[in-house]
Write a structure and sequence with these properties.
This protein is α/β, with parallel strands linked by helices. The protein has a single domain, classed as Alpha-Beta Barrel (TIM Barrel). The protein is built from 10 helices and 8 strands. Helix 4 runs parallel beside helix 5.
Length: 276
């Protein structure tokens, strides 16, 4: 098992911390990798030169870590379920540029969450949105695959989006797409909104379809900061044979500092996986 953390925690409330310093901090804590929200580094991240991306990569690797990949992919102006050709093409181009950036950083995963940029429209039926999502993901996957990236689709709770709210729906989508570079992403916060226990959702996913895993809590902070117990989660992941990344995705520090949240998260995860 490998522990990573999303750098978005260190931009809580719009604060900006030097990325190289963030890498030094989390490496000292024992994290093996960092996952990047592109907008936290630069509002025009995907337009930066390869040289700038390589600077970010050096900051990661000089601290003995690797770039896991990217999350928080889409912003306003992009839409996976767009009904006009212009927005659709702009979204395709954005995915392609992010795949290029991810590869330059040494990353291998892109997490497709972005709840507002995949909403079923009032004029769409769910089935129409489903088929449109499949078509668009199938169309962008060749370039993503060419860059050695796996796109991991993330189910999110109904308070965030009206499209793909459960593990079962997410698994169905990636199975129908049936591309080796498209897999399911699981997120503890999101699975907490399902009717069944989180560990049951995890065990429902065959290992070959799971691409990535986020550790967090419904309070939007790190693992161990809220009501979710991770012992059953660790057991379920071990049962299905998961030995990939456990990546802390905290959007706030729950009253602590980002550094305290990051340290507390990895300490808690180590207690849940005591053999690591």
């Amino acid at each position: 098992m490998k522990f990573a953390i999303c750098n978005i925690l260190f931009n809580e409330g719009g604060a900006e911390q030097d990325f190289a310093e963030v890498c030094r901090i989390i490496a000292r804590m024992g994290y093996h990798g960092v996952e990047i929200a592109p907008h936290t580094l630069d509002a025009a991240f995907e337009s930066l030169s390869p040289a700038r991306h390589h600077e970010y990569r050096r900051s990661i690797e000089d601290n003995g870590m690797v770039c896991v990949g990217l999350h928080c992919l889409l912003r306003d102006g992009f839409d996976l379920l767009a009904m006009d050709a212009e927005t659709t093409q702009r979204t395709y181009d954005h995915y392609h540029r992010l795949a290029d950036c991810c590869a330059e950083l040494g990353g291998r995963i892109m997490v497709n969450g972005s709840p507002r940029q995949r909403m079923i429209k009032d004029s769409q039926t769910f089935d129409e949105g489903w088929e449109l999502a499949k078509t668009n993901l199938i169309n962008i996957l060749p370039h993503i695959a060419d860059r050695g990236i796996t796109l991991c689709f993330e189910p999110l709770g109904p308070v965030e989006t009206n499209f793909i709210n459960t593990t079962a729906e997410g698994l169905k989508l990636v199975r129908e797409i049936n591309h080796p570079n498209c897999r399911l992403h699981l997120d503890v916060k999101a699975m907490s909104s399902e009717s069944r226990p989180i560990e049951d959702s995890i065990r429902s996913v065959p290992l070959e379809w799971l691409g990535h895993f986020h550790a967090n809590d419904p309070n939007m902070s790190g693992p161990g900061t809220g009501d979710v117990e991770y012992g059953p989660i660790a057991a379920a992941l071990n049962d299905i044979g998961w030995d990939g990344w456990i990546s802390v995705e905290a959007f706030n520090s729950n009253g602590a500092s980002p550094e305290q949240c990051a340290q507390g998260s990895i300490d808690y995860l180590r207690r849940c996986w005591p053999t690591i």
